[in-house]
Amino acid sequence: MKNQALRRLFVIVTAGVMLLGGTPGAALPPSLPAITFSTTDVAASETDWEWNARIDGKLIVWESWIGPGHTDYAVYVRNLDTGVTRSIGAGDGFRQSNPDVSGNLVVYQDNSSGNWNIRMYNWLTDTSGNVAATANSEIEPRIDGNVVVWKDASTGFLWYRDYSEPMPTSRQIVSALANSAGHDVDNGRIIWSNPDFKDFRTAMVQPPLITGQLAAFGYQPRDLRVHGDRIVSSFFISTSDNVLNFDFRSRTLSTVAGSATDEAQPTVFHDTFAWVAPGTGGDDVTYSRPGYLVSVLGSSEQEQRPELYGRRMVWDRNNATDWDVILATGTTKLQTRTAGANRYATAAAASREYFGSGPSVYGELDNVILCTGENFPDALSAAPLARAVQSPLLLTRRDSIPTETLAEITRLAPTKIYIIGGPLTISTAVENQLKATYTVERIAGVDRYETSAKIALRMEDIVGDDGVYRGFFARGDNFPDALALGPVAATAQGPILLVKSNSVPAQISAAVTTLNIKYGYIAGDTTSVSASTASAINALIAANGGPMASLRLAGPNRYETARAVIDEGIKNRWIDLDTLGIATGTSFPDALSGGAALGYCGSPIMLTSGTSLSGATSAFLSAHEYEIGRVEVFGGTSTVSSTVYNAVAAKIK
User: Fold this and answer.
1) CA–CA dist 63, 145 (Å, integer)
2) How many CB atoms lie within 10 A of CB 255?
């Protein structure tokens, strides 16, 4: 095993594995291109077992059973950007096991106290601390962003901790029935299965806190993984294990791999899947991506437990006496353009990309935010509301609903449509047309500032008193700074409050007081939001008991400000770089609808010039080249040119 070449370049294309949504046994179209993977041994000791690998961005983690007797377990972390590898617990005589990784954080179970506890390691500080350390055994930690979930082995119940809270505490998931089997977390949603009911269950950590059963099946889900709205699992159907994908919103169950042989241990990243299936010399890893031939990666040994991030994949390799960790990198990057013939069609395309059709398991999630596509003021504060009601943001003309928008509303079948702005922005005729079929709620004020305040207050109604305590401030007479705030504020669950450059409107002051905002973030430099306006904001927050002055997120231009906003979101783990959106910073519609869609899935949008890659955007891409899983450009080539599109692709690893 160790005499194999360190690096290999290979791909096996098979027509015997079904693409998602395909027909069992049907041959794959011969015109599809293949993806080639290069592979590297990440950890391949002669004496240690290295396995249980996970990947997120630039970090790979795995568990190592050290030495011939395997008396010491440790967790290892490899930084792909720097090439540095660190160990957690190597040589201490205790067991560190079952790691998971998100951003710069690694969680694992540790028995140094005499029973299993959950601990967290921070790559940036090179330190570890307890997440959960009780007399019970806490096992199987999973992490995404600020949320850590684990299982109490003594009771079978699931617990979680949300580090975005001012004072994080461990909480039991009340509806996590004992005997929970398999769990994962992504974007504030905890998903698990219960073998007694053969089902999927969920807990949405961010308010509104929703728990309950997603769907029950006639067979038990196993090896559960979740990314976005996709929940992938293996099911024993008839005579073999198959891989199925469950859509969170539409509740549809589709086949990823359904041959007569066993397919198991699936994983998912956006719309790409990987799983294990029998090969010629042992189990191989199979990889599926829309628009490409299915790829099989294997050797004469056993390939097990694949995990995906972007175009990279890690898995465990076993030759019956030893385990190693393998890294595979696809030659084709994950980048796409979401666009339509106009701004209305682009918004509809963004909605189709991220939101399943039809009524979901939770009716309160079936909503649409409708904004004008003709001017920006009322729409600037809408992205956080869209996240709060888990909905897409669509655009309309003042006096008529575009065909593309109406078709998308029909596909979504919403329970409610929120119209943003008064009749001068979206007419009463449009409202009445929608009321003939749907429940409609209009949120509007006498101007953009009062509309912004009313959106913020409506957010609190939806998420509850404890959910809104951060406020994000931007000038209301221009759009770039507020657009950059959109996804970040949405995932931080804070409203975007519009201010004048030299004053805080009375309606905004009242909203800050009513909402009891304690933490403030101001987008833009003093030419956008003056020092005196910032002082007025700080006084309002101080009166609410806020512990510090507002943080200004700014640069010398709109692109640098957008970068500062995203950097703050990443630092606080409100957002991740699973997806990075790109949109023009010189026009508002595409960034508005695209930003709301990305806010739903917890990712940011970066602004750039449409004709050349802006310096701030270029620098951001270089700084996070290993962390960006995929890129989505919003808008056609007339708004973001092919030159910019290709320049973005060249920047990421």
Assistant:
1) 21
2) 20
Burial class (CB in 10 A: 0-12, 13-18, 19+), 527: exposed
What is the predicted pLDDT for the residue at 143?
99
Do both 229 and 357 map to the same domain?
no
Domain extent, residue 103, equals 7-332
Q: Could you count the other beta carbons within 10 Å of the beta carbon of residue 204?
A: 17
DSSP state of 25: T
pLDDT given at position 362: 65
- Domain containing residue 316: CATH number: 2.120.10.30
Question: Which residues in the chain come in under a pLDDT of 50?
Answer: 1-26, 28
Peptide bond before 208: cis, by omega within 30 degrees of 0? yes
Distance (Å) of CA 421 to CA 21, 334, 375, 434: 40, 37, 11, 15
> What CA–CA distance (Å, rounded) separates 248 from 234?
16
How many whole angstroms separate alpha carbon 594 and alpha carbon 628?
17
- State the pLDDT at residue 478: 96
Q: Does one domain contain both 346 and 436?
A: yes
Give the pLDDT of residue 72.
85
Domains held by the chain: number: 2
Closest CA to 652 of 312, 342, 413, 314: 312
Supply φ then ψ for residue 603, to 5 degrees: -130, 155
Report yes or no on 1 lying in a domain. no
